[in-house]
Records
---
Amino acid sequence: MQIPQTTIGSPVHAIGLGVHTAVNARLTLRPAAADTGIRFVRTDVDMQPVRVSPAAISDTFLASTIGNTQGSIQTIEHLLAALWGTGIDNALVEIHGPEVPILDGSSAPFVELIRSAGYRAQRKSRRFIRIDRPVRVEDGEAYAELKPHDGFRSSYTYVVDHPVINRFPTKLELDFGEADFERDVSMARTFGLLDDLPKAQAIGKCMASSEANAVGIDDDGIINAEGLRCDDEFVKHKLLDAMGDLYQLGYQVVGEFVGYMSGHTLNNRLVRALLDDPTAWSFETRQDVPLPGRAAFLS
């Protein structure tokens, strides 16, 4: 069975702070023609749209940034994860400002925004990237890997020596034959240690971090009054980030992702390494196995 490409049904908008820049930005998602892919453009500067690809990622420190010589847009990973998880192949992302709004720190508001726009099936078949042989990148103990699998399966292990984080699950395995991105992953928020915040802000990062857009952790526990949304929210958010980084490929993956303490830099190295090895992957259009967003326009 061939799956048609999809775009959103109508333009939708959101306004919010960038978590790193603390600058208010306006986000507009617009429908795009088949084979356009996901393209980002800043509307507050003279910038041509940039199609998402691993090579278009200009910075990976604490967030994934896309750009060209005319401008850049920070923190695209939560939105990319939502676009993958809801099955959007083609869209124009307009940002009036330097950073995608953080909203609540998860992908859930972006999923809701996409759902409100509706889905439009297009007259070209969706192309998938099938992993034909394993590709792995490492940085010390950390690694990220893509392996063959008939569907999309993922696992992530988050290891950190902290008395609060260690109370909660550090490993997550999801097979999207049963799991659902919106239900099982999208709500997981970004998080951070209160002790690390002054250091981050001293170098111009996390300038707008707050309990409204992140889970704060001190030596005694979770500082957010509502606590965690689920016991494995920390490791789920790390997987959410990885799914957004994998969508830098511009196509859904048929395969298995394994991450061990990987972050944006290692995830970007992984997708670059995959594309650099033409024997490790292939395109296909026929796909009968469950994937995130496989046919979201029908739901």
---
Amino acid sequence: MIEFFSFATISFYFNTINMRKRYFITFLMSGLVWFSSCDSDNDTNGSATMQVRLTDSPGDYEEVNVDIQSVQIHKEDSDDESGWQTLDEIHPGIYNLLDFANGRDTLLASANLPTGAISQIRLILGENNTLKLKDGTLVELKTPSGQSSGVKLQLNANLKEDVTYVVLLDFDAAKSVVARGNGQYNLKPVVRTITQAIAGGIKGKVSPAEYKPGIYVISAASDTTGGFANDNGDFLIKGLEAGTYTVKFYAADSVHNKTVENVTVSQDEIKDLGTVELPLQ
């Protein structure tokens, strides 16, 4: 397991104890510290990270409350029920679409998914959908029987290994609410899907592998991100925004340290540094 840390300021201290090397890490925090991890040895199957976020175009109502219970994806163009996969991290609940107008959004679900094409995304809706009119009247939003299996949307995304993607579900509240007469309304979601790669990364291999260096990935535009090479010398640091970075390798013995300047990362790929040769002495 290789663990990665994002933090404002970080110091690495190395000592040799009982004839073996151990790493002592002191975090000097001036901002938020968070932890994530990945195992580059297990990435041979190829996976990408997907976030599904909800946004909205304004409508002439006080509230448009949609009960979203699950988010699923499908790799095939068919509607074969066995092909639908539920995203791991789901935030079910009743969402007022108008809370997410004018550029605001919220996270609905996320997951690590196999690389490759995804054809469709589906929202599973609950029964607690309501509409609040401008005069304060609260009425039920009926969902047509044809949506009993969920709201299916075309996605046509192609996920690349280790890249982070956002799928933005852009509801049109005004078009999604349909008046039936007699004060009744239907919910027929009109949703535009937008898929965008938002974060790439850096990978490579250090040699000699036994130095097991700690790694800084430094950008003037963002917090420093760090990690370690594994026993084979492989390293992978994901979730990096597009930009130019300095990568510093710190071994237990400082004579093996190395700095690689001007590493350019794009938001839709993992930059491969190849084999990084650390100084032998």
